[in-house]
Amino acid sequence: MTITPKHNWLHSLFASIDRMDADAFAGFLTEDGRFTFGNQPPAIGRAAVRDAVKGFFASIAGVRHRIDRVWEDEDSIVCHGEVTYEKMDGSSITLPFADVFYLQGELISDYRIYMDVTPLYAESG
Fold first, then answer.
1. Which helix (H) or strand (E) holds 44?
2. Cα 69 from Cα 11, distance rounded (Å)
3. For the segment 66-86, what is each residue's pLDDT rounded down to a tens digit?
4. Are 64 and 20 in contact (CB under 8 A)?
5. What is the C-alpha R_g of the chain?
6. Of 79, 100, 104, 120, which is least packed with CB atoms within 10 Å of its CB?
């Protein structure tokens, strides 16, 4: 696989998520960017996205992504992989995801995460 500038950009984006840095994450979006996580209503606007992501980060103890495949063209990127969430009770869960990014230059205008996050909040036992 050839590493492109977009691959490096994607690595930086996921590094901000894995650090649980909502401010850095929001900096990857346009001012009017749209962020949709699973079946949740979209957050629209950089500040709203930052606040939504900050709220999500407050509900978990940690996160790390593994990207398995990336497809790109001039104004979009699609990737899939697995994300491991560290839960507040000390357990962890790994779930598959697919992300679609629509770009304006080097910023995201529309970020869509396709995954079922329900197991993250299911009771352990």
1. strand 43-44
2. 12
3. 999 999 998 999 999 999 999
4. no
5. 14
6. 104
CA distance 43 to 50: 9
Rounded CA-CA distance 59/20 in Å is 11
Each of the 125 residues of the chain gets a pLDDT tens digit; together they read 555 667 789 999 999 999 999 999 999 999 999 999 999 999 999 999 999 999 999 999 999 999 999 999 989 999 999 999 999 999 999 999 999 999 999 999 999 999 999 999 887 65
Cβ(18)–Cβ(63) under 8 Å?
yes
Q: Over the chain, what HEC string results? A: CCCCHHHHHHHHHHHHHHCCCHHHHHCCEEEEEEEEECCCCCEECHHHHHHHHHHHHCCCCEEEEEEEEEEEECCEEEEEEEEEEECCCCCEEEEEEEEEEEEECCEEEEEEEECCCHHHHCCCC
